[in-house]
Amino acid sequence: MHNKNTTIDKVALELFNKHFGELNKTQQQTCNQEMVNNPKWLAPFWKQPDYKSETDKLCEELGIFNYKK
User: Fold this and answer.
1) Which of these, 30, 5, 6, 1, lies nearest to 16 by C-alpha position?
2) Is position 68 within any domain?
3) What is the count of structural domains for the chain?
């Protein structure tokens, strides 16, 4: 069984409307190629330079700035 909250599973759902574990080997290879070659999957929103996590926002509100050290 495959985790259903992974990038590869999201690719499978978008391409084939099935979870990755339900795909045959050829379809799984297609998903792998799509995931490594398409910038859409290589640069998710949480890796963008201006992204702030909920923790970052909360700590900023509370005046805690050095929590990542």
Assistant:
1) 30
2) no
3) 1
Q: In angstroms, rounded to a whole number, what is the distance separating the alpha carbons of residues 44 and 48?
A: 7
The model's pTM is 0.60
Helix/strand/coil (H, E, C) string of 2-65? CCCCCHHHHHHHHHHCCCHHHCCHHHHHHHHHHHHHCHHHHCCHHHCCCCCCHHHHHHHHHCCC
- Domain-located, residue 56: yes
pLDDT digits (tens, 9 = 90+) for 5-28: 788 999 999 999 999 999 999 999
Residue 67 placed within a domain: no
